[in-house]
Amino acid sequence: MKNKKQIPAFFSRCFRWFCRKDLYEELQGDLEETFYNNVKTHGLSFARKKYRYEVFKLIRPSVVGRNNPGIYTLNRYGMFRHNLLITYRNFRRFKASFFINLIGLSTGIACALLIFLWVNDELSIDRFHKNGSQLYQVMEHSEEAGYITTSRSTAGPIGAALAEEMPEVVAAATALRMGNSNYTLSVNDRDMKASGLYVSADYFKLFSYELIQGQEDLVLSDKKSMVISEDLAMALFGTTKNVIGEVVEWEHEKQFSVSGVFRNIAANSSVRFDFALSFEGFSDEHEWVTNWYNSSPKTYVLLREGTDIDQFNSKIVDLIRDKTEGKASHRSPFITSYADAYLYNHYENGQQAGGRIEYVWLFSVVALFILLIACINFMNLSTARASRRMREIGVKKVMGANRGTLVLQYLGESTAMALLSLVVALVFVAVFLPQFNLITEKQLSLDFNVILILSLLGMVLFTGLMAGSYPALYLSGFSPNMVLKGKSGNFMGELWARKGLVIIQFTLSVILIVSVWVVYKQVEFVQTKNLGYEKDNIIFFRKEGLLWEKEKFKTFLLELKNIPGVIDASALAHNMTGHYFSTYAVNWAGKDPEDRTSFENITVDYGMMALLGIEMKAGRGFSEAFGADTTKIIFNEAAIEFMGLKDPIGKIVKLYGEEKEIIGIAKDFHFESFHEQVKPLFFRLTPRFTTNVMAKIEAGKEQETVNNLRQFYQTFNPGFPFDYKFLDSEYQALYAAEKRVAILSRYFAVLAVLISCLGLFGLAAFTAERRLKEIGIRKILGSSEIGIFYLLSGDFTKMVLVAILIALPLSYYLTGQWLENFAFHIDLEWWLFVSSGVLALLIAWLTVGIHTFKASRANPVDCLKDE
Amino acid sequence: MKGSYLGEFQEIVLLAVLVLDDNAYGVAIQEELGRRIGRNISRGALHSALSRLEAKSFLESEMGGATAERGGRQKRFYFLTNLGKKALVDAEQLRRQFYNSLPGLSLDFSM
């Protein structure tokens, strides 16, 4: 033994490492014996050499292998069954924790699943086009007063020019939607409204709107042709077969012949239309769309594969300047991936700045939070209950279970829990999906395709591992020696971990509470704030048919005003809910000739401003009493301020080169969403250029008045179905995204708080139960119920307070960031944060209170009588 | 017969185990073989032979007899089973049959 050191240590260790455990005893024994024999007979160095040689010769399959089956093999199947049985028994034994975990995890998974479906859908939008990766949208940066605005409207001729002049462009397409694009279509005296889009000839070649009749490159080669959707074909002809060549009357004005039918546009397309007409045909009749100064149509290009986008962008940046001989110097076109354009739709001063993708991220994070909160419940309850299972672990370890086996067992347990929860979650999702679709305005469904099933399994695995990791490592780490003696290891560490987890849970919950509150406040602010004009009870519809005739239209307005229920009526060329039409062809004394700031142009008829309740700051509105008001102009305050005009009433400005006299200043009002500052704007009076009729109707008589209006409209303007909108609902639609976020985040926040409380509830129950004897003794020694109550809830109070302290600054920062998106937003007030904190604390107290109260009321005799 | 085929080295190992009687364990067998064959057999080679013989049920083994010079480790003693003994006898007989049927002069080295 004293010579043991002389055995080559490295080889000895190697051998120990590679040798099968069941052979080691015999072989190492033999090797050592031979070694010492050799030392005696041949000397040390020979023996060492021999030993190395022998070890080397022992590297053979029958000897090597740590995990070779042998006497230490586990019966995997048997263990699996055993673990399953133990899991089942544990679920049954601790029913309360089981249900808390089940409800928590299944709610968490259901939320995550719903969000997953939504996110998946958002990510799929516009990605179904076969040319997808090579399809680009042409956009324009436009510099106005030092700020770059970015828009998707492009110059009409740019598509054709790009296709012709740039070798990288395989094809280009232009699409134009005119204002309210619902047109009247008629076949055999049957009239209906359908949404139309003017598209250039190559449109169906670029985009994969599948044609079931007609050929992609030919359908719009004729300027008199029309491509219709399946649904529209059904509505017009009652069939989708053999409709090619049928004639459809458009606005009782022109005839188009059907040249193709496309499959109804899938829900994941951001562009929707019922029929398409030839853009080339439109350009023939509307000269403005062919010049480079205007920007209205959307343009898309298909690039050759491998085209360098940055390089291409630098090639086209001066295109508009070149084409307009430097006159439209402020506009720089560029292209961006069409598939990404939907998600990355927001630009700030010429830089891409998120957009819808932010909401995708936001909700993904919320899903993760909720799942995390649910997992923390599982962790806390399992570790808290660990003391009940310590003997099981001790015995297993003594019987030879190693740590890996135990870790596997607990991970298996949590994964089984997650799997069960998934089943419940699927039921939840199936039940709530219609409601969810209603809120998100999507058509999500649970189709069990490979991707969904894999994602579900992924979710289960993720949840199982996340929830099970800490308990597994914690429980399997017990020393059997300590456990079987009845001592419970590192109690302090465990307690801290549990407290930490509760703090994380409540931090997340408080952040969610604050965020939801702020979002709610902002949405409420946006919807109730005085816009500077009255949007309620105003109905509007497009001028069509006879209304385009000047004298007829005058009569129409007069008669309209006489309809019972109609208070006032007028016309304008704007929709009051966003940028509609603007121009920089406004000139005034002292204007910087380089300035290209657009003024919003609202062309109105007499009485329009009064109808909208737009207040005048100075001067007067347009009035027939003064005659010849067509040479007058009214600016808003922002415009006057921008122009820097002192004492503006009576001054002359030039609009499109014509002199106009300023007769009034309108108070600023919001004609765009609250994301935008109020921009310079002017009103001009040109009744024949108005496109929309607006009528103010009596509140409370909407249905009746609309019926009267419809009757009147149909007799006055036969052949045109009455298609109207309410201004306030159009206005609400501006904030659809925010409203959706508001509603969804409210639900998710409530769920997150509920799940957190569920966990707290379980923990409180457990603590109260564990400390029952302590409570009994304290009561016997004279402690009051209040004292006990304080004792038990103190810990939780501290945890929640810490969570609130962490959460408030975080939520202040996060909500502040979100509000930055709005040019007009609420202030973050301190009381909002304080109330959120107090709310969280109250909820926590309520949750803990039930058990604590019960425990403090317990009769000490009951808790102390049996040991 | 493949399963019970006895290779030459395996036959010798079996014989060595038989010769060593009660003391047939790794080192002893290795030394016995070394002495008789005249060259050293590696423990690894011996292990292979022994484990194959055990797998064919020609040998059985049992642990025991730890000594200090082996670091207190137990030895594994090998015994022939009846099947092992029969295999030796069969091999011997097979050989004898061949020898007996040789023509007289074939083994005359003196030629």
TrEMBL record, chain A:
It comes from Agaribacillus aureus. This is ABC transporter permease. The keyword Membrane applies. It is a multi-pass membrane protein. The keyword Transmembrane helix applies. Keywords: Cell membrane, Membrane, Transmembrane, Transmembrane helix. Residues 99-318 form the MacB-like periplasmic core domain. It comes from the Bacteria.
TrEMBL record, chain B:
InterPro entries: Tscrpt_reg_PadR_N (IPR005149), WH-like_DNA-bd_sf (IPR036388), WH_DNA-bd_sf (IPR036390). Gene3D superfamilies: Winged helix-like DNA-binding domain superfamily/Winged helix DNA-binding domain (1.10.10.10). Transmembrane segments: none annotated. It comes from the Bacteria. Residues 15-88 form the Transcription regulator PadR N-terminal domain. This is Helix-turn-helix transcriptional regulator.
